[in-house]
Automatic annotation (TrEMBL):
<dbReference type="Pfam" id="PF03133">
    <property type="entry name" value="TTL"/>
</dbReference>
<dbReference type="InterPro" id="IPR004344">
    <property type="entry name" value="TTL/TTLL_fam"/>
</dbReference>
<dbReference type="InterPro" id="IPR027752">
    <property type="entry name" value="TTLL10"/>
</dbReference>
<dbReference type="GO" id="GO:0070737">
    <property type="term" value="F:protein-glycine ligase activity, elongating"/>
</dbReference>
<protein>
    <submittedName>
        <fullName>Tubulin tyrosine ligase like 10</fullName>
    </submittedName>
</protein>
Length: 525
């Protein structure tokens, strides 16, 4: 099947009940997994009694007909907040701004954030994300054009494209002037003002890392995986992937994009690809050995830097990206997602996040990928199914029998007070049922006191944990009088002027935007 013309492929369960899995992807790796489980293929595009749907191309009908708590669906519907260039950039900026305000007003350990029962190191964007500007915002666009110097190299990317499509380099003033004129003409075009959706998609410009670390003289990046195996509660995993290299030696002045972009889609355009295909992908073990042999002594690196320092850094960056969008992702029991994360290492061994990709490529066109991709696919589906079934039965999520390749990053059962409410009535009813299961499993919730009883006093010496609610489109019922706590003075003024809080306050009253201090996660429940 071509990538443009996917068909739906159903896998009914061998159980007596009618259950199926509909796939919108090439059935190669995923279908092999289901066949091994005894499921059969069904070619019926209109069936809704499926168990799992692997969705490469998202559609409104897919999510509208989804039955929370009964089915599994690959791809969170609004994962674009994490997997588009503008979405990731904007949310990382917002997260950093809010965290800076919080750290200044709370006595927190410098550089760390207490997150439930965990401690997460807060990274500065400049330490892992290349300097970037949005070209769809006039002020940022003008700031970039004023900043640009003729000796610099910047890379221009469309916000939603993948596989290197629409990417070009800005290497001189003439190229920048041409881009500026084109953007100006688009902004002034009356057609695009009347019909905005016909305008070219928005772009960002990113400072190009001109001195990357090279492997045998070639540029490379590392594809790793962030698996969101469950959203109610959130359960996240990190998975190692592989190293992607260019066919030709690196030259920063080259106009050939195949010398700058490492993905397989671009490398196939190189005339040398058919000869060097097997050398364009390395295992992480080979990469680790190469770094040990070539750079360990010269750069003073610890042994197995790739599997220690580098891996930990990738996990920290992934967690920060997730926390930046955690309150914005749509959460329903049955949603799961696999996100491809691309990292680059410069000559000083500084780790940079290039982008995060929805629906990462699962092709196996070389020997290394034929070994790695099946492991990733099998691990993804094993974990998603096991956690889903445990959630339905009210069982503890950990330990996991199918956790082999992936490393646990975050278990929401131990740090959250229960699932977030959904937007629909049916979802609300399921969320209430799941909350009772989660509360009995995670031991984080408590029953509200009766109206006649006084609320328990906070134990002395307890450090308050503060909870802020600012979910757009999610409606919270008025807080019962018995649950009312004293508003936190250190926190309230931080969010009182936030556009989301102001809009909710105008439309739904002040209780929706109040920030309350409680003494523990149990009290937060």
């Amino acid at each position: 099947l071509t990538r443009e013309g996917r068909k739906r492929i159903c896998f009914p369960s061998p159980s007596p009940q009618a259950v199926a899995a509909l796939l919108f992807c090439s059935p190669c790796r995923v279908s092999v997994y289901f066949r091994s489980k005894g499921w059969q293929r069904v070619h019926d595009n209109k069936r809704e009694d499926y168990k799992l749907k692997w969705c490469e191309t998202k559609s409104r009908e897919t999510y509208y007909n989804f039955k929370e708590g009964e089915q599994l669906l690959y791809q969170i519907p609004n994962n674009k907040v994490l997997t588009t260039k503008i979405g990731l950039l904007s949310n990382l900026r917002e997260y950093e701004r809010v965290m800076n305000k919080i750290s200044k007003n709370l006595n927190t350990k410098k550089g760390f954030l207490a997150y439930g029962q965990f401690s997460h190191r807060i990274l500065k964007m400049e330490d892992f994300f290349p300097e970037s500007f949005r070209l769809d915002i006039k002020d940022e666009r003008e700031a970039f054009f004023e900043l640009y110097k003729d000796t610099q190299i910047w890379i221009c990317k469309p916000t939603c494209s993948n596989q290197g499509r629409g990417i070009f380099l800005l290497k001189n003033q003439a190229g920048v002037d041409s881009l500026q004129a084109k953007l100006q003409s688009i902004e002034e075009d009356p057609l695009y003002r009347k019909v905005p959706y016909k305008a070219p998609q928005a772009r960002i410009v990113q400072r190009y890392i001109q001195k990357p670390l090279l492997l045998e003289g070639k540029k490379f990046d590392v594809r790793s995986y962030l698996l969101i195996a469950c959203t109610v509660p959130y359960v996240l995993f990190f998975g190692h992937g592989y190293v992607r290299l260019t066919c030709t030696h690196y030259d920063a002045t080259s106009d050939d994009l195949t010398a700058h972009l490492t993905n397989q889609y671009m490398q196939k355009k190189n005339p040398l690809y058919s000869q060097l295909k097997e050398e364009t992908v390395w295992r992480m073990e080979r990469f680790n050995s190469y770094v040990n042999d070539k750079f360990r002594q010269a750069k003073g690196l610890p042994k197995d830097w790739v599997f220690t320092v580098f891996t930990k850094r990738m996990q920290q960056i992934m967690m920060q990206c997730f926390l930046a969008v955690k309150s914005k992702l749509e959460c329903k029991l049955g949603y799961f997602d696999l996100i491809g994360c691309d990292f680059l290492i410069d000559e000083n061994f500084k780790v940079w996040l290039l982008e995060m990709n929805a629906n990462p490529a699962l092709h196996t066109n070389c020997a290394v990928l034929q070994d790695i991709i099946p492991t990733v696919v099998n691990g993804t589906l094993d974990l998603a199914l096991e956690i889903f079934n445990k959630s339905l039965k009210g069982q503890r999520i950990l330990p996991l029998q199918t956790q082999c390749h992936f490393v646990l990053l975050h278990n929401g059962c131990t740090s959250e007070a229960g699932p977030r409410p959904s937007k629909t009535r049916s979802a609300l009813s399921i969320a209430r049922n799941q909350r009772s299961l989660t509360e009995s499993t995670c031991h984080l919730a408590r029953q509200p006191p009766k109206a006649a009883e006084k609320p328990p006093k906070k134990p002395s010496g307890t450090v308050p944990i503060f909870w802020a609610f600012s979910y757009i489109g999610t409606y919270y019922p008025p807080l019962p009088q018995t649950h009312t706590q004293t508003p936190c003075p250190n926190f309230s003024h931080l969010l009182s002027g936030h556009p989301t809080c102001m809009a909710l306050r105008r439309s739904h009253g002040p209780q929706l935007c109040a920030v309350w201090g409680v003494s523990s996660p149990r009290a937060a429940g």
